[in-house]
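Protein 1 of 2
SEQ + STRUCT:
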Amino acid sequence: MNTVKAEVTAGKYSPREAFSELERSVHAALETYSNVQRGSGHNSMVSTYLYEQARAVVLDFMGLNKRKYVVIFCTSIRKTALSEQLKPSSYRSLSSADIGLALGVHALAVKRRSLSKGVPLESGGGTTRLVSKEWIIWADAPDRFEAGTPAIINVIAFARALQLIHQFGKDIFLNPADENTTAKDILYKDELEKFQGKEMLDELRKTLIAHRGQVPTMNGSKPFINFDNSASTRTFTPVWTAFLQTLQQTPKVKLEIINEVKSICAKTLGASEDTYDVIFTSNTTEAINLAAKSLSRENEQGIEPVILNSLLEHSSNDLPWRMVPGCSLIRLSINKEGFLDLNEMESLLKTNNQEEQFGNHRIRMVAISGASNVLGICNNIGEISKIVHRYGARLLVDAAQLVAHRKVDMDDCGIDFLAFSGHKVYAPFGCGVLVCRKGLLNFSSTELEEICLSGQENAGGIAALGKALLLLQRIGMDVIREDEQALTRQALVGLAKIPGLRIYGVTNPDSPGFANKIGVIVFRLENMMADQVAKRLAGQHGIGVRYGCHCAHILIKHLLGVSPKLERFQRFMLTLIPKMRLPGLTRISMGLENTEQDVSVLINAISNLNKSNGSNVKKQMNDFVANAALSVYSKP
């Protein structure tokens, strides 16, 4: 870095030094990475600030008024669809490809008054403020147009690159140095090659990219502990290295990486390449929207298609199906622990598809979560698939919460569509995946090519995903499951001893259902709102969790017993007071980084939460955010 500083003093950067400065800035962002919005910890505060600040950087680079314009970050295909609804004079756009970086980021700066107020082109997580079974209150711009978890780190990298271009020339990233590295080297070589199994897990944890210092709390400085892995996972040095190396490769090597990661995905998911296509997207939400759009193209004469999903679903596996014209939706119920009644599923399929008891209604798609992001239960996909195909329907699995925790075998289970995201599997660089049985997508060859090219613009994110999946395989999914179940058991036993605390879903680690539960636990504390619990865990103990409805509004209201009357009242109040907080649940979610010591600290912290609002620590936390942001966006 001394060389970089010398060049800055001289008033210029060479391309290699510019890339080094970009690398430093993005690494700083990764040290405090979390998903944006609704997180309570220090990391979520930092990432949210950095992401929102990126919009200001883009507008500043374009010379546009921040009061008149809003920036929407999207993929190529989303940008095309949205701009088609706008007058050419009402927006400007810029992409990471324009500046020579394979990040897959498009920034659309749109006049605020030009944005549509109606239903967004794509729906899912983050696009709404409140959801019921019958109605939706959409979020305001830009959230309404950024369906699913955005490519947070890629967006931050894009914004920082714009700052460097502004200072040191528009061509600074256009001719990246050829590292003379092969695709196989980038994906398969690293310093941990000799390790396998539990030893590999222990060694990988040492490479976690995280803020190594202390975070401010009411009880003094403490090491930050992350229990928000279901929202997004932090990454490890080998994954980060693969991302960086890919950005500096020639187009030929990038294409080789993309094709190799397709094979890695197929192998990891047990999806034979002669049976399935692997399509890269920006996230799980975009992948499911593609499947829903494909279904909308099916036009069976005299048939009214029906979608079957469940109360468990994340908004991203609920809202896209509601948007399919002419389709209706049936939701399966769940038992006390959160598991589906497969007899109910078979009865619905039989009466609709075989016995034709409901006129022209036919269940054409069963769209089910592989693992719940709220209750952590894993559905029996193999048994579900047998029932679904017995009655002529197709099966889509939302595997966003599944792939990092359990072995998946698409061939064996007979899954037709599967969607997941890199940011849930330790590769938070904006890459999603849709794996689908060949011939099922109803798009023209031109449309399909545009869809594929859009996702493949993010070569860096694709490489990171491939590397992360290989690391998981070297640990072994059985090892990951065993380690996670031990931590989950420890947490359930400890939390059960806290007076006034209620756990939802599987509560007893000796229950048969526990074997089918990942490390996700939601709970409620007597006389304390979920957001209060989460904020006090952060402010008093330096622990990051999540609170609210977790983009699963229907499930949370079911668990809390919200009546239709109360639901209508909530809708009325939220219309009057848009920033009002509604009841929800606090969620802890575990990942590879968590240890028995982390769980012990968490249980002790929840047992000792006090009523203080922590006004003093709020300023310290805000200072922490400001300093972290300065390390990313600081101008040389």
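Protein 2 of 2
SEQ + STRUCT:
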Amino acid sequence: MRTDGQWIKDEAGRTLLLRGVNLSGSAKVPQTPLGASHLRSSHLTPELASFVGRPLPLAEADEHFARLRAFGHFFVRLVVTWEAIEHAGPGQYDLAYLDYLRALIEKAARYELKIFVDPHQDVWSRFTGGDGAPAWTLDVVGMKRESLVDCGAAVVHAFHEGALPTMIWPTNYTKLGAATLFTLFFAGHDFAPSLRVHNESISEFLQRHYVAALCEVARSLRGLPNVVGYGTMNEPSAGYIGVRSLQHAVPGMVAKGPSPSPLQSMAAASGLPVEVEVCEFSASFMGTVGTTILNPNGVSLWRSPTDDVWHREGVWAVVNGTPQVLRPDHFSVVRNRPVHFAKDYLKPLVLKVLEGIRKVDESALIFFEGPPMPIGEPPPWNDSDPKGVVHAGHFYDGMALMGKHYDPEFTVDTVRMTPVFGREQVQAAYAEQIHSLAAHLPSIPFLLGEFGIPFDLDGGASFRSGDYSAQEAALDGYFSALDRNLLSGTLWNYTPDNDNAHGDMWNGEDLSIYSRDKQTGTGDVYDGGRALSAVVRPYACAAAGTPLHMSFSRESRHFELRLRRSQHVTAPTEIFVPRYHYPSGFSVEVSAGSWRFDEVRERLWWESEPSDQEETLRIMPK
């Protein structure tokens, strides 16, 4: 694959519309028996954690890859964490895991699945409430992992008493654990120059190991023709970079539970009990509901007082018995200039990853993204920058994702920050917001790296009723938005070990389009799939020209493709036509040329003479 302006193209010059899934939600955690006791032990002895078998055991690969092929999801965003590669210590790679990855991707090739490797993280690490970075990254900055929860620096599922509040994990982005690590990773040389490791700034040390780990993956996969590229970092966060007020809570994806300001977080991490606001976010209410005491037992996060990095840097101190900010612009101004996270810190990392990967695989595409919208933006990309890059931002209906309730008649437009009412207006808002995301960098291709809907909406009502119509409506809106904008996308997600009790096996999420508990034992390739009327759909995989229009109606099952035929492409247009929607067959109308259909591969080839004319193809059920 190669990039050509806003398009991704194949070796024949055809324009590609890539559709697929993220594999998988449970790849964020080690491959070990599920249970609170084990989750806790894997946090306490992370060096022994093994990710071999994530996202799925090799013995099950044929079943799941055959299902993805039947779904038409030929493009896989393969979730790989830094911890999985380098959990034992800096420079110590898990060779068994790397061998497993290669064997898994070799199997995927037999099912025509293309892969791009996603170095995934959420809120930095499992040890700060998410996934991604190894435990030693916390050790090297002087944090005591066992104190993160007690001092309010993270909400960690494995150590949470009782049921984990719905979608509380994103609040970790603004808590001290993740916010400090992101700040040190991207900009420790500017904001914590006193923190050095072996004569390197902390940012140089961490980034060097991060990029080296990704390059080790690339070396282990070198030569596999179905590996098309690598991501740079899933949903990177600015941490405290750019924060102008340390005395007010930093805006995040969601405000839920204890919501300290940066100053309150720093004071609590130092061992001071602090009173903070408590917030609530649900489908029916958003706002402050009271206060609580953070770190009531006075536990320190730091190994020693000198490890307290923000106190040592003079950002804050206790004055007359009260925590006070000493340097209010510490994170917002460097060398008398306001900082810009995407331009000053994120783009240099993208370039480092690109340079490292291209030394191993010179043809690899590089997929990058910014913080989730509307919190941040992608790094700028100019004509003078390296080629072969793809903007891979994410989009979700925030009300449905965070509130676990989907209303087809209502959403919030996160671009305009305005409410949207009406079914057609909601669908149009999806398309407009995704278009706006893609338009940030119009000169390079865009792939919607994540989109999806929880299957445990409204307390798991769908499990009890077997009715997934809400999820079907939402996913149909997402896919229709991709069609309308002629964009590629990878759905979040497909989790092979999903079940109703544990969801995607991570932080209470349940967005998988497959579940073991949905299987009936028929042996049919669709068995276990969820919301398939929206998920499985026809689309143009490769167009012999420039796509102008593509649409599919779930109700009528009519599909239409219009393109401007290229004079320089002799290969046919290739369309995935699933038997799921056309069990009794279909008819085809073309404005030019002829077509043929391969029933086994479920592919339709449309051939016409090279020209610069507009041409149309329509598919209708018999």
